[in-house]
Design a protein that fits this description.
disordered C terminus, mainly alpha
Length: 239
């Protein structure tokens, strides 16, 4: 709040550090560590624990990426408001404006560096989060546009109710698709981790392969020699 900021005027503005992003990105929650311990005790063919582990991991990253993207958007809007309400016009025309906006830009750059690291580690997860946010933004713009048309008297109540119902269905469908996609990514990550660790269902072997014995293949009749080691006498030819 303003009172807390006034107590420490000498230090620069820093509302990013309290989010503790990097520690939360690399720190595994209690449930994640628990599933890693369980994984050691489970048989090789049981891989559900890997799926749950990655589902929790992706959920944690989703929350962090949402926080950082909202942080960046909020600072962009704040920079515009500061330039608009302080000074003569919307441009930066005072030293105070320049100083505050410079601090805000530096914080945004730090937040964007965090996003780049998260994207390098889990590009598919981060890309899906950005696409989901974009789709939510489009649906929200549709809702605002319909409400504006109703306020101006261009559409009536029944048409407004119909459009709002369609928008709500789109929101529900988007949320369902988001959950389905995260489950698919968790299953894919679990499969990759299982293959990398060699944890797979054992293949049943036949008894002959386990003992190393092989079935004997009879040789041709020409190669068979009597047990005495002597060759058979040649029969006399009939005249």
């Amino acid at each position: 709040s303003v009172d807390i900021a006034l107590d420490d005027l000498d230090s620069g503005m820093d509302d990013l550090s309290p989010l503790d992003l990097y520690a939360r990105l690399n720190h595994k929650a209690l449930l994640e560590r628990l599933f890693q311990c369980i994984d050691v005790c489970l048989p090789r063919w049981f891989t559900v624990d890997n799926y749950v582990f990655f589902r929790l991991k992706h959920a944690r990253r989703e929350q962090l990426v949402y926080e950082v993207t909202c942080f960046i958007e909020a600072h962009v809007q704040a920079e515009k408001k500061i330039a608009e309400f302080v000074g003569e016009d919307e441009t930066i025309d005072t030293a105070e404006e320049a100083y505050v906006i410079k601090e805000s830009i530096e914080l945004r750059e730090r937040a964007q560096a965090f996003l780049r690291q998260a994207d390098a580690e889990d590009p598919e997860v981060v890309q899906h989060i950005h696409l989901t946010k974009l789709a939510n933004s489009v649906i929200e713009q549709q809702r605002l546009f319909v409400e504006e048309l109703h306020e101006e008297g261009l559409i009536d109540e029944p048409f407004l109710a119909e459009q709002m119902s369609a928008i709500r269905r789109d929101q529900v469908a988007l949320n369902v698709q988001r959950l389905v996609r995260f489950r698919e990514m968790a299953a894919k990550s679990a499969t990759v981790a299982t293959a990398a660790s060699g944890k797979s269902k054992p293949v049943k072997r036949s008894p002959s392969s386990e003992t190393g014995s092989e079935e004997s293949v009879p040789a041709s009749s020409e190669a068979i020699v009597p047990k005495s080691g002597k060759e058979s006498p040649e029969l006399p030819k009939r005249k």
